[in-house]
Amino acid sequence: MGVIDRFADRLPVGPDTPRITLGEGSTPLVRSARLSERLGVELYFKFEGMNPTGSFKDRGMCVAVAKAVEDGFEGIVCASTGNTAASAAAYGARAGLTAVVLTPAGAIAAAKSAQSRAAGARVLEVRGSFDEALRACLELADRGVYMLVNSLNPHRIEGQKTAAFEIVEELRRPPDVLALPYGGGGNSCAYAKGFAEENAATQIVSVQAAQRATTLASAIRIAEPAHVDAVDELVADGRIRIVTVPDSEITDAWLELASREGLFCEPSSAAGLAGLAHVELEPGSTVVVVLTGHGLKDTAAVDVLAEATTMVEPSVESILAGVGR
To answer: What is the pLDDT of residues 177-188, one digit of tens each?
Structure first.
């Protein structure tokens, strides 16, 4: 059962909205095996990389694309650093809509580009930044043929808020703290909306890279967050706290998640965990870190950040020497 069917009574859908789904949602909430003890909290990971195209974007994309079909659009358009592109391409294909994807030249991970192209999207590289690509998408959408499916589309936020419902349902209570990456800010707003609808006072920690425009965490490489005003309002209301971390801390958290918890996410997904080091956590509190994308979305990062393979002879002695025994 997908997001629309499961949460129809809490989404802006009706009997004429097509139930477009690839089986998104219902992603694992994995209890920490080791890091809980280090942090002194009950730590969980919401692994959104287990969605159909490997990222959290699928939750909102299924709703946005369904509404595009319902409203009679011929196609969909988005600007993307990768995950939105892959999701729009897949759900556009599922719905029979043309998907136009604009990506900043050289700024998209190869795996995400491959997903988009395989699904038949028209992928166009823009000689400029993500923000310039988004502005071009907005101009195209204004012509009325293509629906914009970036998170500026409110249907995206509606779909993404369902992750908060799932967390509360599985824990049987709201978490005290939720930490996640802060790129464009749409997901932070979505979780805030979801927890508000659950009457939950969860503190959201939105973690951004210190050098937004050049961070190695390509999924949050966004210089001008589209939802900055909404996020700032939530900060003023005390519902969101923004934490800024250097790339070195994102890298360390990424390696730690894989080597100590067995969770392989893309580097940007580890920003939430990195941010917890800068937050005073109540001992014994319940903390959820959102892992927004699967590690297979950016395998090139492994070649840069992880230890290389070692060549050995096919003998026990050589193998033991290779593992330092």
So the answer is: 999 999 999 999
DSSP label of 14: -
Strand-pair partners of 46: 29, 290
CATH tag, 3-55+155-305 = 3.40.50.1100
Query: Residue 158 carries which side chain, given as an amino acid letter?
Result: E
Distance CA 168, CA 173 (A): 5
d(CA 219, CA 215): 9
CA distances from 192 to 55, 127, 313 (A): 19, 34, 54
Secondary structure (3-state) at 115: helix
Yes or no: say if 99 and 137 are a contact pair by the CB < 8 Å rule: no
Ordered by start, the domain boundaries in the chain are 3-55+155-305, 57-152
Q: Which two tokens stand for residue 73?
A: 């659009």
DSSP string, 146-183: EEE-STTSHHHHHHHTHHHHHHHHHHTS--SEEEEE-S
Q: How far apart are the first and last CA of the chain?
A: 49
| CB-based contact 279:245 (threshold 8 Å) | no
Characterize the bridge pairing of strands 29-31 and 42-47: antiparallel
Q: In what order do the strands lie in the sheet with 146-148?
A: 122-126, 98-104, 75-79, 146-148
* Shared fold status for 3-55+155-305 and 57-152: yes
CA distance 316 to 213: 48
Whole-angstrom distance, CA of residue 306 vs CA of residue 199: 42
Condensed to tens digits (0 to 9), the pLDDT of residues 62-111 reads: 999 999 999 999 999 999 988 999 999 999 999 999 999 999 888 778 88
